[in-house]
Amino acid sequence: xxxxxxxxxxxxxxxxxxxxxxxxxxxxxxxxxxxxxxxxxxxxxxxxxxxxxxxxxxxxxxxxxxxxxxxxxxxxxxxxxxxxxxxxxxxxxxxxxxxxxxxxxxxxxxxxxxxxxxxxxxxxxxxxxxxxxxxxxxxxxxxxxxxxxxxxxxxxxxxxxxxxxxxxxxxxxxxxxxxxxxxxxxxxxxxxxxxxxxxxxxxxxxxxxxxxxxxxxxxxxxxxxxxxxxxxxxxxxxxxxxxxxxxxxxxxxxxxxxxxxxxxxxxxxxxxxxxxxxxxxxxxxxxxxxxxxxxxxxxxxxxxxxxxxxxxxxxxxx
Length: 318
What we know:
Layout: H1 12-15, H2 21-59, H3 71-107, H4 110-123, H5 128-154, H6 171-194, H7 199-207, H8 212-241, H9 244-249, H10 267-274, H11 281-311
């Protein structure tokens, strides 16, 4: 005698009840789509506003623009100064940030890693004006002897040509301040990527006889390469657009190749220092400068996306 037992599987969850999960998914998808469209619309509105307000500058005669030689002669030195400050910051902050992230994620014991990570994260919460005030009152003066040494011993290099500024308010000081400001971005993002490295890959490398550094070089760094690039590009965007810290620290002036002399200027600092009193064509000039900075940051982000898309499929840990 055989007994057949039939069971009915509930299908309500699989099929979705009316007004239940599927309705919620539709609402969430609509909200997500609306949020994405809102971001794009806001970006387009900002770009349109900047272009329309900057249009009088592009149409004005060259002699009416600040400097009397046209808009591009006016803005080009500031573009160079903006890029120089951002590059100095990245050169200083990137290796330090990656090394600190590696220490926190793979070397430090938990009782040390957590406080260090917490302190690094706190650096991101400090307002930029505080960094600027510290840079101009403490750091600038402290770096003057170092600048004198650079001028005496490496003055044959144009980047360190003297005489060194005796106030310390130079492009190199700005780069150091910006490096401290973007350090939490690189460290936090790199740390989160490092801890996501597959443990099986790390254990396999160690089982084959690799040292801890060899394991990191063969598994962690290849896996985290797209994330490191993302953190660096995000930090670059912050450095390019920083305003108050640069305005407080830098003693602006004509473009100079030396990093230890007073001079140079960035676009953001130029706008911040002159916008309150600007009107008429001068106001249009500053908005045009903002449009140029907007385009620079847009190009940087597009380049970052292209680099990440190129390398994410070729991680050495895959």
